[in-house]
Amino acid sequence: MDLGLKDRVYVVTGATRGLGNAAARELVADGAKVVLTGRDEERTGAAAAELGANAVGVAVDNADPEAAARLIAVAREHFGGFDGILVSVGGPPAGFVADNTDEQWQAAFESVFLGAVRLARAAAAALEAGGVIGFVLSGSVHEPIPGLTISNGLRPGLAGFAKSLADELGPRGIRVVGLLPARIDTDRVRELDGMSADPEATRAANESRIPLRRYGAPEEFGRAAAFLLSPAASYLTGIMLPVDGGMRHGF
Fold first, then answer.
1. Contact call for residues 119 and 13 (beta carbons, < 8 A)
2. What are the Cα distances from residue 77, in Å, to 36, 71, 121?
3. 180, 142 in Cβ contact below 8 A?
C-alpha cells in the first residue's frame, strides 16, 4: 500500500530514540522528509545522520517557547515545505503522589503539556489543508498506570486538547490524531521494568496481561504512526489509536 508519504515534510520531536525515533524511521523509509529533534545536539545530529539525506536534526527542548517557530522554519528552508508534526516527548519522572515534587510537576507540565500545546498551535497556524498534527500520548489517557502519577495527570488533559483541536481544525482540512502506546520495547519501558525488585518477573507478568502476549516492537509503533500521519489516513481525525497489543478492552 502506498501511503502517499513521498516528499512530504514532517517535524518529529523527541526523535533521537524510542517512539519518536521509530516514527521518524518509518516516515523516512516510506519516502518522507523529516526534521527530528532532541535536547542533546550530538545525539540529535547522529540520529539524523543515521537516517540519511532525508532527515535533519535540530537540538531543541519542547519547553522552549521559540522551538515551534524554529522547527517549522527549518522544515521549509531545508526541505521546502511543512506537512505535519508528531509531538513526542520523553516520559516524566516515575513516582507516586507522595514522591513527586512541585519542581518535577512544573518541569513536566512545561515539556509534556504546554510545550506540546505550543508546538500544535504553531503547526495549526502554518499548515494548509491536508496537514496533520499528531501526539504520542499513553494508555494512561484511558486508565492510570501505577507509579506514573505525573503522566497520569498530564496525558489525559493533552488528549482533550487534541480532540478540541481536531474539532476546530477539521473545517480547514487539517487532521489531529493521537497514539496511545502501552508496553513497547523501548529504553523507557525497560527502565520502568527495571525499577521493580525482579525485572524479568515484572516483564513476564506484564506480557501475561497483553492479549498478544508480548511487548510491541518500536517499528510496529512507527508503522502505526506513519500511517496516521499519511494521506492514506485522510478521513481519520480526532481519534486516539491504542498501540498496545490489545491491552485496552473497551471500545
1. yes
2. 14, 10, 20
3. yes
Task: Give 85's strand partners.
Answer: 11, 133
- Residue position matching grid coordinates 490524531: 177
**Rounded distance, CA 183 to CA 217, Å?**
9
Task: Give the single-character DSSP code of 110.
Answer: I
pLDDT tens digits, 160-200? 999 999 999 999 999 999 999 999 999 989 988 888 889 99
Give the DSSP per-residue string, 165-231.
HHHHHGGGT-EEEEEEE-SB-SHHHHHHHHTSS-HHHHHHHHHHTSTTSSPBPHHHHHHHHHHHHSG
pLDDT digits (tens, 9 = 90+) for 75-86: 999 999 999 999
Per-residue pLDDT tens digits for 29-57: 999 999 999 999 999 999 999 999 999 99
Cell 511487548 belongs to residue: 215
